[in-house]
Design goal:
The longest helix is centred in the N-terminal third of the chain and has 7 residues. It is globular, with a radius of gyration of 24 Å. It is built from five helices and 36 strands. Helix content is about 5%, strand content about 55%.
Length: about 675
Amino acid sequence: MSQGAAAQTPVNATYVTLLERLVIGLGGAPKVAIDTPQAVTVVTGDDIDQLQATTTGDIFATVPGVTIVGSERQLGEAFNIRGIGTTENSSDAARIVVNIDGQPKFFEQYRMGSFFSDPELYKQVEVLRGPASSTLYGAGAIGGVINFTTKDASDYIKDGHTGALRLKQTFDSNGSGTLTSAVLAQQINDTFEILAAGNWRRTNEIEKANGTPLSGSEFNSLSGLIKGTAHFGDNDEQTLTASYQRFNSQTDKSRYSQTGVMAGDPFGYIDRDVIDQTGVIKWSNPAADNPWLDLNLALSFSDTLNMQRNHRATPGGPVTNYPAPSTFADTDYQYRTWQLTGDNTIEWIGDGFENYTTIGFQASTQDRLVNFPPVGHVPVGTHPEGTENKLGLFVQNEFILDDRLTLLAGVRGDFHEINPTTAGLPSRSDSAFSPKLAALYAFNDNLSVFASIAHTQRLPTLDELYSSSASKTTSLGLLKERANTVEGGFAISGSDLLMSGDSAALKTTVFYNHIQDMIASNGTAVGVPYYGNVAEAELYGVEVEAAYDSEWAFANLALSVTTGNNLITNAPLTTVPQSKVVATLGGKHPEWNLAYGARLTVAANGEYIISPGDGTAEGFSTVDLFASWKPESGPLAGTQVQFGVDNLFNANYRENLAYDRSAGRTFKVSLSRQFDY
C-alpha cells in the first residue's frame, strides 16, 4: 500500500501534503486523498498531537464540511457533515456512519452526545464526505463516514528495537485540565506484537470567553486499549488482529443537559457513569500470489452504557426521587451491538489497465435497552426498546485505464428487521438500495477532474418508528428517506514550486443533495405522530482543501460552504452550520526539528440559529497558535514538547448550532518521552 501511495506522490516532491496521504477506507487500489473521486480528509496522529485534542470533537478543527454539534462537554458531542447530523437524533446512526476499526458506534439519549471516546487512542481518522461510501458502509450514509483507527505496537517500535514505552503529560490552563498517558509496545517475537495504552483525563469547569463558567463541563475519564497483531502463513502475509478498547467517564453533580445549557435550564444536575466498550477480531489474507483472493473477515462488538443517578434541581439540593419512567429517574440507557463482516477483492491486471472487484457483506444485531434500578424494566415511550437486525450485501468495482481514467461503480442492498419490546407494537421489515457511479480523469500528473452520482435510501430507525409521548403517537407509517446526490470537482498538484522538493495540492468539490421523504421530528405539535416525512429538502455547497509543504514552511486551507432548504416551506434547514474557512500557516527549523505556526478560523453568519441559546449567533473569527519540538539526537532524543494557545484573543461568540458561547483563551502544553529498548 505504501508503494501505491508513493507512486501517486508528485514526482519530484520530497515533502508530502495532507492531500497526498493514503486513504485506507475506500477499497480497491491503494490511493491517496487527491486521487479519489470524492471528498476525503485524512487526519493523522501527528495532527491530533499538534491540536492537543481534549475531546474527539477537537480532532476535526481543520476538516472541511465537518462540524461538531452539541457542546464542548465531553459527553455532549455529535457529528454533522454537510448539514446532516444533530444531537438526540437516532437517525444520524445511519445518516453518518462512525466506525472504530470497522465497528459502528452510536448512542442516542435525550440531552446526550452520540460518541464517547478519547482522542489519545487513535493514530488516524478518515472522513469520507457524502453518500459515495454508502456502498461499503451502509445504505443511508447521506452525510458520510468517519473511520477511527486505533494505534498499533508497530507505530512505536523502531528498527533495531523490540519494545518502546511512551509517557505523556498534558496541561490545559482553562479548567486546569490534565492528561496522564502511557503506551507500552512490545515485539514478542518476529510474528507477534502487542500494545497496551492507558489514559487518565480530567478537568474542572471550563470558563467561557465572556468570563462565566461553562456549567457542567468538568469531567474525569479513564480510557485504555489493548491490541495484539500476529502474522503467519506464507511470507507471514496473513494477519490476525484482536483489540479491546474501554472508555469510562464518571461525573458527579454535572449538568443533565450535556449538549448545551439554555437560559433558565430546567434539567438540573445528575451523577453519570458512562462506560463504552469496543472489541474487534480481524483476519486478513492478502494472498499476494493469488489475484482471486484478498480476504478480510471481522467479528466485533460495541456496548455503550449510561448509568445516571441522583437527579437534583440544584448542585447542592435534595435528590428529586422521580419515579420510573420519568426522564429524571435513576436510569440505565444502553446500546449493545454485535457485527460480522467480510469482503474479498478480485484483482485483474493487464496491459495498461487494472480492475478490482470487491464483494462483501455486513451483518449485525443491536439491542436498545432501558432499565430503572431497582424497579427494573418499565416501558418508556420516548426511548423505545427493541432489537434491530441488519444484513448488507455489496459489490464495488474499480477500473483504472492507463493510470489516467478511474471508473468506480458500486451497489448495496440493506435488509432490516426491527422488533420492538413494547407489547402490541408491530415488527417492521424493509430493505434499502444504494447504487453509485464515480469517475476521475487525470489529464497529466498535475491536473485531474472527477464526478460522481449516488442514490441512497435510509430506513427508519427503531427510535423513529416507536417513539411516543402523552401528546404524540408512534410513527408506524414512516417512509424511508431517498437521496440523490451529484458531486464534481478538480484537483491540482505540483512540486518544485518555490524551492527544491516542495509540494502543493488543491482539491475542490461541489455537491448537490436532493432528499425526499426526509424524516424529522414533529416538534411541539400535539395529536400527531412523533416523527414525520418532509416531502423534499436540498443541501448544496462547496469544499476546498489546499496544502503546501517544504523544508522550511507549510500551509493548509479548508473551506466549506453549505446551504440547506426545506423545499416545501422554503425555510432553511435547522441542521446547516455556518460557512467556515480555516487557514494554517507555519514554519519549520529542520536542524532542531522545530515546527510552529498559527491557525485562523473565520465563520460567516448562519442561515438558521438554534433558539433559545446564550445570546445571538453571528459570524466570528479566532486565532490559535502552536509549536512542536522533537529532538532526534542527544540526551533529549525521544522527547517531544507541544505548546499551543487556543482562542488567542479570547473571542466571545456563539456558533449557530450550539446553545453555549465559546470557551475562553486556553494555554496548552504537553510533554512526552519515548524509551526504546
